[in-house]
Design a protein that fits this description.
Shape: elongated
Strand order of the largest sheet: 3-6-2-1-9-11-12-10
Radius of gyration: 37 Å
Largest sheet: 8 strands, mixed
Structural class: alpha/beta
Strand content: 15-25%
């Protein structure tokens, strides 16, 4: 035989209760079935709220009672089409409702609601719902109060297992094909008063019956598909767990997973009866099976994540605890006497502190109890005054596959640390099936997402991107992400989630990710006014895991945000050169902050656009090599200009062309002044291990100061004055088979930039268009320097370089 339990929303609507009938009929065709039913969804809460109204003399309880009556009548009319059966069922249900009405009337008159009366009132939810379900399915109805017996201990009604098992076996000695009983309700074995099994008691009723009768399986039919890897309301990528061991299910239930009431598991576990969790609204779904032995090979080290949000941490601490036997015994004995449940214990090996996790509602009482218990020790200064730290959440990762698997805890805490999540207390039992820890409750969402992602419970690894700047580079990057999105999901199981886009004027954000199609139009039409303060508040305030801030601007104000972002464990990818070329101490501070926080500060595209120059230098140095000399053409703009200059195309025209084709900065003087190259050489020098600031670079420019001191309009007017000079020089170079190259040099720790003449045998001679080239002379590459050459400018290649930096973060 099998036991099926239906509860809550599973019997809360016409559709669900008709599904119940269909499910039960299929089961009865195979073997005898006992169905356990709880109250209609929401009725228990309605019964309680109505009784509270009556207890305070609020006459609106009558209206509330009428609503309860109306809902049950409406259900009967909708699911029982036969008029004769309707009349008979309505008669039985109305008798129960009249009893309930009389109790409410009594509560209203005496303005008192005792525990006994309250238990009697809530029992009517199950008693009425089970009668309706029994009539619908053609089942024989049994009153569970006659065989589920409780006894009072420590002020609570506890199941008398021995007596209950005996009575269940006697009641179902001759088992009908289909039996139906109300869940949750019970009766005190001494006084005979109506009691109940507490929250989730219908699950417990079903498990008790299944264990007493040695059922083949216990099926819990509910409104979810089964146990999820995490709360799907917090983690959109959570999925159903196919199978769990009893231990794993118990651990998840104890830490907030509300699929099954925790006491449900023990009776059936003891008899090795599997539990099948199914969805009443989706009977075809596979569900979750809970059993003794499950297959662990080749699966993730953890099965699921659970959490308790309303946590308070109480720490008993003091030097007087060290070496004293019985301190913990006193703590837990006093709390148990007061009925306070402790769900987490963490103790230092030095024995000078013990931290316990309790629910917020128990925190003040627990502190009062313990301060009284240790009053003498507190007065003597041996133990500190005991207080509770509130506003916390407890998280548990669960999985029997963690047993004897090295590195799980290290990976867990390392991942949390990299995302800026501080662990306040932690605990792990010797069984190694559960690691529990406490964090600030405001970090709970981020914590769950981080763990779910890093332990491959998510189908995809997720990077959450905030992209600042939608000019040529930023726009190209967004287009590349949109184009590669599906391929990365399919081939790399990587989801690049753009959660924020900002320009200098507008910004828009979405925790779940922005649709990149037509983003610009939405940004300017629907976005909020943008400024640096808004950016920092939104990016940090959203508190999203695996966050990456991508700067595609040239703004010093945006570069000024990096420190605060890194300090909040947000990686930074910058096409913006300002931070990496700023004062050396600021550069070092940013690098150290990233390293300390376990995040990345990447700026490969600061030099050479998409060319792997900085990464190559870092790889050489990390492998023990030393950079001795750098010679480079680093300005795609200047290389474009000096490659285009000819008898037909004077210098001033090539500068204009560079701007029009997007090779130069909006003000080309930034390129012509060598500032851009100086910034790049400064960055390369620093990455090569040398301390250098921009002012340390010697510059030999080809234009006089007057061109840089004028306004931009004046600059364009006077620029043709140098055309003749450059043409004269060009002719000489042409005769000598030489060309101009603006070369950046680092040698002996000193930097310089200047316009040089190179002959036809030099590697720089044939450098085309806006390409960059770099020669690295190192201790290993001394005789034949390493050469890196390619496109050094352009929105597409720069965006591709930024994309590569983002991908390197994904590969951590």
């Amino acid at each position: 035989m099998r036991v099926l339990k239906f509860g809550g929303t599973s019997v809360g609507s016409v559709k669900s209760i008709l599904n119940l009938k269909e499910i039960v009929q299929k089961a009865v065709a195979e073997e005898p079935v006992i169905v356990v039913v709880s109250a209609l969804g929401g009725i228990t809460d309605k019964l309680i709220s109505t009784s509270k109204k009556a207890a305070v003399g609020d006459s609106s309880y009558i209206t509330a009672f009428d609503e309860i009556t109306s809902r049950h009548h409406e259900m009967i009319h909708q699911i029982i089409p036969d008029a004769g059966r309707q009349v008979a069922l309505l008669h039985d249900v109305d008798n129960l409702l009249n009893e309930l009405k009389d109790i409410y009337q009594g509560v209203f008159l005496i303005h008192d609601l005792s525990e006994k009366t309250s238990a009697a009132i809530v029992s009517y939810g199950e008693r009425i719902s089970s009668r309706i379900a029994a009539e619908l399915c053609g089942a024989k109805w049994f009153d569970s109060r006659e065989f589920i017996k409780t006894e009072k201990k420590h002020g609570k009604h506890i199941l008398d297992s021995e007596l209950t098992n005996k009575l269940v076996q006697e009641t179902f000695k001759e088992l009908p094909p289909l039996s139906l009983v109300p869940g949750f309700i019970s009766r005190d074995k001494v006084s005979g008063e109506v009691t109940n099994l507490g929250r989730g008691g219908s699950d417990y009723t079903a498990a008790i019956i299944a264990a007493a009768l040695d059922a083949n399986v216990l099926e819990i039919w509910t409104d979810v598909d089964g146990f999820m890897t995490a709360d799907p309301r917090v983690i959109s990528t959570a999925y159903v767990i196919d199978e769990l061991s009893y231990v794993e299910a118990m651990e998840l239930c104890n830490f907030g997973a509300k699929v099954v009431y925790p006491p449900t598991i023990y009776p059936v576990c003891h008899k090795n009866i599997p539990i099948l969790i199914k969805n009443t609204f989706k009977p075809e779904a596979k569900g979750t099976i809970i059993k003794q032995e499950v297959e662990h090979f080749g699966k993730s080290s953890i099965k699921g994540i659970s959490s308790i949000n309303n946590t308070s941490l109480i720490t008993v601490t003091g030097l007087g605890m060290v070496g004293v036997i019985g301190i913990n015994s006193r703590i837990f004995q006093r709390l148990a006497e007061e009925g306070i449940s402790v769900f987490l214990v963490s103790q230092a090996s030095s024995e000078n502190s013990t931290s316990i996790g309790v629910r917020n509602e128990d925190a003040e009482q627990a502190c009062d109890v313990l301060n009284k218990e240790f009053q003498k020790e507190i007065e003597m200064g041996e133990i500190n005054f005991i207080t509770a730290e509130k506003g916390l959440a407890t998280v548990a990762i669960v999985g029997e596959n963690m047993k004897h698997t090295p590195g799980i805890a290290g990976k867990l805490f390392g991942t949390l640390g990299r995302n800026g999540i501080n662990v306040i207390a932690c605990a792990q039992g010797a069984s190694e099936t559960n690691i529990s820890f406490v964090v600030n409750s405001e970090w709970l969402r981020k914590t769950l997402n981080v763990i779910h992602d890093s332990f491959f419970l998510s189908e995809y690894q997720v990077l959450n991107l905030f992209i600042c700047g939608v000019g040529t580079v930023g726009n190209s990057l967004i287009q590349q992400i949109a184009h590669q999105y599906e391929r990365l999901k399919k081939e790399r199981n990587l989801m690049l989630n753009v959660v924020g886009i900002a320009s200098s004027k507008k910004a828009m954000f979405s925790r779940t990710g922005l649709n990149l199609e037509g983003y610009k139009e939405r940004l300017y039409n629907e976005g909020e006014d943008s400024n640096c303060q808004l950016l920092i508040e939104k990016v940090i305030g959203m508190n999203i895991f695996n966050s990456v801030f991508v700067d595609c601007t040239a703004s010093p104000e945006v570069a000024g945000l990096y420190k605060e972002l890194l300090e909040h464990n947000i990686s930074v990818v910058a096409a913006n050169k300002i931070a990496a070329s700023s004062d050396y101490e600021n550069y070092r501070m940013l690098k150290r902050t990233a390293q300390k926080r376990g995040v990345k500060f990447l700026f490969e595209t600061n030099v050479g656009a998409g060319l792997p120059i900085i990464n190559t230098i870092n790889d050489l140095r990390n492998s023990g090599d030393k950079i001795l000399k750098i010679e480079a053409v680093l300005s795609g703009t200047l290389n474009f200009i000096f490659n285009k200059i000819s008898a037909e195309l004077p210098f001033s025209q090539t500068v204009k062309m560079a701007k029009e084709q997007g090779y130069s900065e909006p003000d080309p003087r930034v390129d012509l002044s060598g500032k851009d190259v100086i910034r790049k050489l400064t960055i390369l020098s620093r990455e090569s291990g040398y301390r250098m600031n921009q002012e340390d670079v010697q510059k030999n420019l080809f234009l006089s100061d007057r061109f840089f001191e004028s306004t931009q309009d004046e600059f364009w007017q006077i620029l043709p004055e140098v055309d003749a000079q450059f043409e004269e020089g060009r002719r000489v170079l042409e005769q000598e088979q030489k060309r101009w190259r603006f070369v950046a040099t680092l040698e002996n720790g000193k930097g310089s930039v200047e316009l040089k003449e190179v002959n036809s045998h030099h590697p720089f001679y044939d450098l085309e268009g806006s390409n960059n080239i770099i020669l690295l002379t190192t201790e290993r590459y001394k005789e034949y320097p390493m050469l890196i050459q390619g496109y050094g400018a352009g929105a597409q290649v720069t965006a591709a370089g930024v994309f590569a930096d983002i991908m390197s973060i994904a590969n951590i």
